[in-house]
Specification:
By secondary structure, the chain is of the alpha+beta class. The protein is 20% helix and 46% strand. It has a four-stranded mixed sheet, with no helix packed on it. Strands 3-2-6-7 form a four-stranded antiparallel sheet, with helices on one face.
Length: 143
């Protein structure tokens, strides 16, 4: 009987260690589409550019010095802009234990939105991206 209790105890400890000691994990990487509705308080927009970032400083840098639209994976541009919602890809990745428990999760958190007005002025705004498990949509009014 004592031998049986010891074997059951060691099996339980082994199972718990396998789940909670992060020796073996599943890593996943992907993206989701964030629906962005853009409008302007200063009049109709001629073009709109949205780009998702991991770090706030990178998004702020784009707002300060927009430059021409690039071919980044995490951006989208609409020229001419007709007011339709834009679909911006946002990176998300994570790690799971062997039994599927979430060990870590990472998602791009910042969205830079740049609009060009009919008179050529550029306006922009930095927006926090919501957790994709909560919402996959944002509305932005650029000043």
């Amino acid at each position: 009987m004592r031998y049986f209790v010891v074997v059951i105890g060691l099996t339980a400890i082994g199972a718990l260690a396998w789940e909670f000691v992060p020796i073996q994990v599943k890593v996943w990487d992907g993206s989701f589409d964030l629906t962005v509705r853009v409008s302007s308080a200063d009049g109709p927009l001629r073009s709109v550019r949205c780009e998702s970032f991991a770090r706030r400083e990178h998004a702020e840098e784009l707002l300060e010095r927009p430059g021409p639209p690039g071919s980044r994976v995490w951006s989208v541009a609409a020229e001419p802009f007709a007011g339709e919602p834009l679909s911006v890809p946002v990176r998300v990745s994570g790690r799971e234990s062997p039994c599927g428990r979430e060990v870590g999760r990472y998602q791009f958190r910042f969205l830079a939105v740049i609009g060009e007005l009919a008179d050529g002025r550029r306006v922009g705004k930095l927006v926090e991206i919501p957790d994709c498990r909560v919402s996959r949509e944002v509305s932005v009014v650029v000043p």
